[in-house]
Amino acid sequence: MSTQTEPKLVTQIDFARAGQITPQMKEVAEREHRDPEYIRERVADGRIAIPANIVHIKKGMRAFGVGEGLSTKVNVNLGISGDKADAAEEWKKVKIAEDFGADAIMDLSNSGKTRQFRQQLIDETPLMVGTVPMYDAIGYMEKPLVKLTKDDLFEVVRAHAEDGVDFMTIHCGINKSVTKTFKETGRLMNIVSRGGSLLFGWMEVTGNENPFYEHFDELLEICHEYDVTISLGDSCRPGCLYDSNDATETAEMIELGKLCKRAWAAGVQVMVEGPGHMALDEIAANMKLQKRLCHNAPFYVLGPLVTDIGVGYDHITAAIGGAISASSGADFLCYVTPAEHLCLPNAQDVLDGLMATKIAAHAADIAKKVPHARDMDDKMGQARRKLDWDAMWECALDPVTGKKRYEESPAATEGTCTMCGKMCAVRTVNKVFEGTTIDLGMED
Ligand code: SF4
Q1: CB within 10 Å: which end of the chain, N or C, has fewer?
Q2: How many whole angstroms from 442 Cα to the centroid of ligand 1?
């Protein structure tokens, strides 16, 4: 009789590799119109992640799949900053995220004591919750950046895991080798990732290796215990078109690819983060390179913003890049709001950013032939053909705004809108086929 004990199955990847389909895999399969075995196979080899902390599952979260063959997921960032700490405004943003179809909320609070907000968010929202523990470390430990120790940083990660965070952005890839490349080759915008810049500063001042890189195995143990998906942060994502696809970004991506394999070997789910700012014609190649170097791990991108000069409209520059990136292989889009590069977004910015990103994700899903992605578009076509406005609101990504605009400008001719009124093309052709009079109001 064998005295060896079977390894404890904790994470979705553990169960998938053991051939077991979890309730979360079933839920993802049902929502995505896929066979549960399709999901299990891809969770087992890391092509799909289901970020679902065991603590959050117990609180009733919904399971979301991120990765190959699945609909593109959308994240909303929120959270207080040191300059603007209005918790009520942040809760308004949570409500918008939930009501308008976000799949994930990242709490990026970066000032003071953030734990109460994070715990309440995890208690209340069924969406995936992500955080960046590095943002929280200074407030949590009440220490200046350079006084933080490796143990301090890992204590913060553990606290987030215990609270039930489903995925954490951790900038593990910016090691001494990558910073050497960065310093040797130079960049126009240097490092624009907040977490990446903090770690770079810490490494330069202390002279130490990135603790999340050096002690990666210890990090994996914490993540495995709670099934936290590591979202490998891209510290060196390009902050302007000039820096995209440069040596520094590529050097970090190579490191991230190596870390993916180590995470999977330890039974930890992983996603990889990506750019950034990037010219339209470079995006598809960047997505393919990431998938190649990171062994088809789910790719989570911020934009990319396809021009640097769309100030005040960066939800649009990011949505253009988001549609290209998602149709070329990215799996998860982080929203960008009109306030990007300018200020902490308000609730209206959050809605505008979310809708722009949802449109990009949906457009990509149609192009990627995600099962049933086009159903609502075809229903919308039918509703418009019939001038059935109630049916149109049911198909719309944002029915509230659409209905409001329609009702603000009442049409004089029933069924039409004030754009063309009696000259409504749909109405005219319907009347032709019905054999009824085409009254344009000029007959009298
Ligand atoms: S009035 Fe013009 S814009 Fe309005 S529904 Fe008819 S065709 Fe479309």
Answers
A1: N
A2: 18
